[in-house]
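Sequence and structure are kept together here, with a separate record for every protein. A complete record is shown below as an example:
=====
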Amino acid sequence: MKKFFFPVLAAALVLTACGTKTTETSAEAAATETATAQQVGTGDIAYVQVEAVLAQCDLFLNEGKALQEKTEKAQKSWAQREQNLQAEAAQLQEKYQKGLITTRDAQATQESIQKRVASYQANAQKEAQSLDEENYVFTNRAQDLLHRAVQEINADKRYKLIVNASALIDADTTLDITAAVLAKVNELYAADKKAESKK
């Protein structure tokens, strides 16, 4: 009886273990399939690499680069003018200390330099304000195009959440809609340019 009971008990344990393993495996597979279907299949969540879209869009390539170059050129010009005025003031000081010019001439030249510094600063400030406004308008146009593109892509409310990729730590690349957003931004930009040219 003991001989018969032990093999039956061992067989029952083996069958139970196999049954549990099969149940666990199919439960895990079902959970994985459900999670995959929720994330990728229905497309509840997506992300956009906003910086990439803004750097590669036609708006930036046609207008943004020119504005960027204009800003950099102005900044270099300001730095050069400031250096020149500082060098001129230093030369004046050196000449005066060496006794190469009179006090009266030094004061007259110093007043002239100070007037030019004040004029330069006023002009630089106006130019900086103008460039800031141009950059502000450009940024708003780019953000508007991006917003409109995302709205059109998600017009069917397919995505419950669309996030900026800069906030992500890790994400599946199948959730990346950057290429679609870039194409839509370019399409909207072209339509806007066409509408402007008809005016």
The longest strand covers residues 45-48. The helical segments are 2-41, 50-56, 58-98, 103-153, 178-198.
